Structures are given as C-alpha cells and as structure tokens.
Amino acid sequence: MDFSVICTIKEVAMMEIRHLKLVKAIVEEGSISKAIFKLHLTPSALSHQLKEAEYQLGTKIFLRENKKLVLTPAGEKLYEAANEILDILSATEQAIKQMTFGETGEIRISTECYSGYHWLPSVMKQFQLLYPNVNLKIVMEATHYPLQKLLANELDIAITSDPVRNETIRYIELFQDELVMLVSENHPWAMKKYVEAEDFRDEHLIIHSLPLETVSVYQFFLAPSRVNPKKITPLPLTEASVEMVKADMGVMSMAKWAAQPYLSSSALKAVKIGKTGLKRKHYIAVLNGKKYPDYFTHFIDFLKTELHVVWNME
Fold first, then answer.
1. Residue 66: other Cβ atoms inside 10 A
2. What is the pTM assigned to this prediction?
3. How many other CB atoms sit within 10 Å of the CB of residue 163?
4. pLDDT digits (tens, 9 = 90+) for 75-98
5. Which of 83, 161, 190, 298 has the highest Cβ tally under 10 A?
C-alpha cells in the first residue's frame, strides 16, 4: 500500500465502516431513498448515521443542490478513501475465509433429465461438507437445454447424455446407466423379456415433461424407428406417474437404478428396452479452454468418484 493511501486511511481512522458504506451507497445509488433500500436502513437511521460521520469528520460531506446531494471537497476525499478501504477489507475477508474454510465461489449446474435430480442434491451436500464456501446452485430452468445454457454462460456445468459436436464444449464421461420400462404387473409387457419399438404404437406413454425430443426413450429408441405412441402425457410428478402405471393407465421409462425402490412390491415390473437394453452414457460438459478455479476441478472429480465408486452406477 503506498503512502498516500496510508495517509487517507489515517484521516478517517475515527470513522466506522458503516459510515464509509453509507457515503459510498449515497454516491453510487444517486439518492437517499435508493441508499436506504440498499443498506436496509430507515430514513431516520440513515440521517443519524450521516450526522455522526460529519461530526467525526468535522465538516459537511454532502451539500444539497437542486434537490440532489453533491459531495463537498472533503466528501470527495472521503469517498475515495471509502472505496480504497472497503476494497481492502473485502479482499482481506475473502483471503481469511479461504485460509480458514478453503476456496470460495459458485458452481451453476443443471442436467438435461429430471432423473438427475434424484442423485445430484445428495452429492452436492457431501461436497459442501468439504467446501462450505462454494455455493452449488441448481439451475432448474436450464433442464432439457443445459448445453445451450452452458454456451450462453448461464451454466458452469451441464450434465447430458446427448453430447453434440462443438469445439467450444469439452465432455468428461461421468457414468453409464440403463433405461427400463416401468409397467403394471397386469400389463401385457410384464411377461416380456424386452419390448421393441413397435410395441409402443398402441401404448399410453407417460413422460416427465415436454419437448418429446428430449425424452431419452423417444430420442434414442422410438424416433429412429419412426414410432409414435398412441398417447403421450407429460406428468412432472414422479410419484403421480408411478401411481398411474400401478393402475395400468400407462407405461413410463426410468433409469434402472431409479426404478429399484418402486419394484419392492409385485405391483410393478421393469422391462428391458430392446434386446440388448437401452443404455446411455452421461457426461459433464464444460467450456473448452476456459480457466476454472481449483474447487471446480475438485467438484468434478468428487462427482465422478461418488457415482462410480460409492454408488457403483454402471
């Protein structure tokens, strides 16, 4: 820190940090009313703090000209010092937090499939025990379109099973799972070893949400055979969809691992999709060439370890 900054700090040493924040807010917000909102103060509290600051400084900080507050020469000096001091304090606070708790930052994440939200929150919770200052944020509105949101810089990590060729995107293999059809024990499919695309023509397919092109069983199994189910119903609530299947009112696809809890009773059956099964690989997609902080790499490694080793999702 140079000598001029040290002198500036000494000039306002008797003032409190709240006074510096007050002056900064009034100048940058452009009005008392906006400063009140930003600082969460009442008008009387703001007025009292401003008088305190002027008393400690021994001179006026603002003058009122044409209903606007304008900095006095002393106020300009104080505002300059406030910026310097508050920036130093903020940087120091961040450095101490990093020394004490590890790295700080944010990771915005989304998947193209709602089934991902069955396992993602649990992994996030475990990671935040190790990195409490890294905010992991699920961006629900990016579901089904994570790659587009990644390219638009609205996401940091996109989880997808449908990678597209793009030099801007780098893919990291995460895990592989298998999709099955969940059907009622009374459904004709319950006795089948596997179902073929043609079997869907007379069926009521329950999906989580539209568009249909983002539904894996349609995208990778039905569409290539040019087969459309007789009826399609989007139903966002998994439990409601399962109950409809139990009542033999339709069929639905699920990841095999996600279907397991529903197969404990004999009311439901899981049927293989296609003779060899419908398997899909899931990838972590990030921007190619972008420099990420260390905690970002740690999260990706943690995610891969949890899914491959702990949960053995293969």
1. 5
2. 0.61
3. 15
4. 999 999 999 999 998 888 777 766
5. 161
